[in-house]
Design a protein that fits this description.
3 strands; 12 helices; mainly alpha; three-stranded antiparallel β-sheet
Length: 198
């Protein structure tokens, strides 16, 4: 298998990848994932220290850690396996050259695969986070891992992500998906033919 084929195969695997359902995000501003992507794209090796990311976006190191963790565990855009650093994955490199609207389609698609998002996407939780907090506490691992204040902050992230998913939700599904498939038809055909051959 050539390097190009390996990269394409990795890209397809990442696109098919399911979000880590055990990961409870703390990253209230979904647009920040795009900001990180476009920043990392311009760095040598598409890699930066979290300290530099925090400085660039005027956020704390902890916040840089929260966003990069979610970008890794939920979206597969970042590799955070090297302590203190964030590197774009093959999928991240590809998405870093997409238009903002196309990136948002992908982010929303991955968010909607999460059980905790799906459970509340059709409910009004704009004023009351109690149902989300209760759902988080029902998962024993989360209840044991996080304090009540941390659970409340994460419930706020869930609300932010649901609001993000709901934005412009009608035109996204058909027109932009069709456009994406048309623009990438040859690559997708090649990827699926490679999968069938294996």
């Amino acid at each position: 298998m050539t390097n190009t084929n390996k990269e394409l195969n990795t890209l397809l695997t990442n696109i098919e990848r399911e979000p880590n359902q055990d990961f409870l995000p703390l990253a209230n501003t979904p647009e920040r994932f795009g900001e990180f992507l476009y920043f990392l794209r311009r760095q040598p090796g598409c890699r930066a220290h979290k300290r530099d990311i925090a400085e660039r976006f005027d956020i704390t190191y902890r916040q840089a850690n929260f966003y990069s963790g979610a970008g890794d565990e939920i979206f597969g855009l970042f590799d955070t396996s090297e302590p203190g650093h964030v590197t774009l994955t093959p999928l991240g490199k590809s998405m870093a050259y997409k238009k903002k609207d196309e990136l948002n389609v992908y982010l929303k698609m991955q968010m909607q695969k999460m059980n905790i998002i799906r459970g509340f996407v059709n409910q009004d939780i704009s004023e009351d986070l109690t149902p989300v907090i209760k759902a988080i506490e029902e998962k024993e691992d989360w209840k044991e891992t996080y304090s009540l204040s941390s659970i409340e902050r994460r419930a706020s992230t869930i609300r932010s992500w649901i609001e993000f998913v709901r934005e412009d939700s009608l035109p996204i599904s058909e027109s932009q998906l069709v456009q994406f498939v048309k623009e990438n038809a040859s690559i997708l055909n090649h990827l699926f033919s490679m999968r069938k051959a294996v």
